[in-house]
Structure prediction request, 479 residues.
Amino acid sequence: MIKIIIIVVLTTLISANCALGQLTPQNACRIDGDKLIFTFNMKWNEKQKKEFLSLFDIDSAIIGNVINGKSNFNIDGVVWNSIRISPNTFEFSKSLNEGISENEKYDNLVLTPFIKESAEYQSSLNANYGVNRFEDPKYFQYRNSIATFFLPKNTLAKKVYISGTFNGWSTLQTPMHKTDSGWVVNLKLNPGKYHYKYIIDGKWIHDTNNALKEKNEHGSYNSVVFCYNHTFKLNLNQQSKKVILAGSFNGWNNNELQMNRTTTGWDLQIYLREGTHAYKFIVDNTWILDPDNPVKRPDGRGNTNSFVGIGNIHTFKLKGFLNAENVFVSGNFNAWNGGELRMEKTSDGWVLPYHIASGIYEYKFIVDGKWIVDPSNPRTIGSGNFENSVIAVNPNVTLNVNSFKDAKNVTLSGSFNGWSKEGYQMEKTVNGWTISIYLKPGKYTYKLIVDGEWKLDPDNKLWEQNQFGSGNSVLWVKP
Prediction:
């Protein structure tokens, strides 16, 4: 009997790795058209043979038929074809789709220890916030950066693995350990959102004890888990019946995040993305500020909110303007709210320390009601009244262009900024032009705008054709 679980990967990569001269148990499987083909070498030692059978969960009855020279045979309703390709080497195959439902085609085959996900899928892992919804809290715990996954029951299973975004969807890297009541594994994880599944004796399943799940690009579901990085607490002496947490991170939803009663009041563990978040508590339908949080700001609309910051702090600075009465900073990081982030006056200007996530942001200063770009920052986007300063917080990509030395102006535009016609301003250097930006992991396409003319990056050999026939340069950012 064979229990094959299939996940479609880059077939060209698999085929390329399966040259007979370098045949190993790890690369002894490939996809050719609609056929799933295995190669078995009689000269493998016992350890290699066992590894092959274990890796692809192949029953010895199949190997027996192959070695005995049967060209066609049926095992558990699956038709196999076999051929000897050398004195000691056999190939046996089956239809890729035989015995597999439409949704299982992509969820049920392990061909390689690692599965690559698309850039679009990677972007789905970004979340402003998250709260877990396990049937029982003991099924997942997160303390001191250690995530403990517990799969109850399944005590008759021989092997159980956990696979997810935290291990590159490896099918073999993370085995779980059997206990008297199920399976458990401890993983060191950073705060954030993760997708995962269990592999029980070769069968992929999402976590049925976890109510959070999202449909994946293969038509099945991935379970979703959050590793927390913050706890909201409200200490109340009065007897309150219900407390809700609402904030900018969840669109001020007043009926979603119910807090848990404690001996001293209420609390709620949560994952929050890096940055600054406004929030309030709703106590028995009455909105209140956090009485234990001194950080409070008006929102420019007549309300005052409590604020919490996660991650690193970036300090906005504006030199001069010492005669101004009020200076604010505003950008796409706070939905361009011009009355929220008031800066503090110093001896030489104005400053505002502010928690902000890694990324590329547009912003302006508002000096006594007048919007201005940052005079000390040469990087801008747009023009006229729509010109904004641009800042890269914790940049992870530096693009150096050793060309166009005689150009007067070079900007960068691509899929990361909506193919802006103005682009991000690059800085001129002795050898050409440079810019440092932050991009999340994934694939990006881009071009340089050189004195108004769109051009490929001459220093980047990676490019792909576009709908205009002019091509785009390609940039990959690794996790």
